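The following record pairs a protein chain with its ligand, magnesium ion.
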Amino acid sequence: MGGAVLVVQGDGEEAEGLCGSAGYRVVHTIRQRSLRGQKYGIGEGGLESLREAASRHRPDVIIFDGMLKPGQNYNLATELKTEILDREALILAIFERRASSSESRLQTKLAQLRYEMARAREKVRLASQGEQPGFMGIGKFGVDAYYDDIRHRMHAVRARLAKAGRQRELHRQARRRAGLRTVSLAGYTSAGKSTLFNRITGEEADAGPELFTTLSTTTRRARLGGGQFLVSDTVGFISRLPAYMIDAFRSTLEEIAHADAVILVVDSRDAPDAARAKFSSCVRTLAELGVGRERMAYALNKSDVAPDPSACLGLEGDWRCARVSGVTGEGVEDLGRAVARVAGGPSCW
Ligand SMILES: Nc1nc2c(ncn2[C@@H]2O[C@H](COP(=O)(O)OP(=O)(O)OP(=O)(O)O)[C@@H](O)[C@H]2O)c(=O)[nH]1
Ligand SMILES: [Mg+2]
């Protein structure tokens, strides 16, 4: 595991989780009120603390839990002689480590190319000022070739993803013909979707404390109560994820968009503020995918170790809610009834 110095704006717990999932051990944390400094993202005082931390801990990377402009990234790396990762690059690093199916690898590749493209303009500007190593003396021809190369690679990846998407569509049609209703598990990363999925379907999908354990969709038939459902486990959400990353994972997330019901899994262990922030970020992301509240049921998960968060989320007494534990199985039947009601048709869990 590489050592990292972490720069955060909030309490930093999630950022630390992200670092761990990307394979970095945080050796020192610096708190900043904002990333508004022009040249470095941080002010002079922050830069001084970073200089000190960098020379004391000699980290492999310095990680910013925020977005840096390419110019700021370059200035920091030059000044501190250490590799700099911002939040987007960190999440991409996790995706790269975790992507195991060919579709999730393609989706990760697409997100990386979009990241590169967004920075291409700034890189070219720096290059023309002779400030970007490896880009010295690049002429117009070189710049065009650089853009074209990224564009071509994006095109190729998109074409392959589209093919996988058509395959999925065929599967969906077959399910519809068979009269099978579909349920997708959605929610913040690490809320416990895969654990609940395993509990409901008797499967053994990967589940673990790292963030983004699941990157591709798994769908299984589950016989619950009297009827059949197709249940899908999906990639987790995270706040402050740029639209292009959601877009890159669209083919996986489409499974959610087409589901008859979506189970929004909530981690009841979160403190009230974090719980509310994550919940609204999930509801927003689902809305962007075309899923309204009328299609949702709520699994207030980890009831074996945490109190009921429904009041704090404005869900008190809501029939769509069930307190559940993916670990013990408690409440799963109640959840099934709520889901069946949301999905319509006979209640069969
Ligand atoms: N105590 C307790 N722990 C749980 C429960 N459900 C999940 N966990 C733990 O929470 C962590 C995350 O669980 P996962 O099922 O991998 O979560 P996920 O939502 O699929 O996460 P990603 O795939 O990373 O988005 C694991 O360490 C689980 O053991 C539960 O009901 N009770
Ligand atoms: Mg998972």
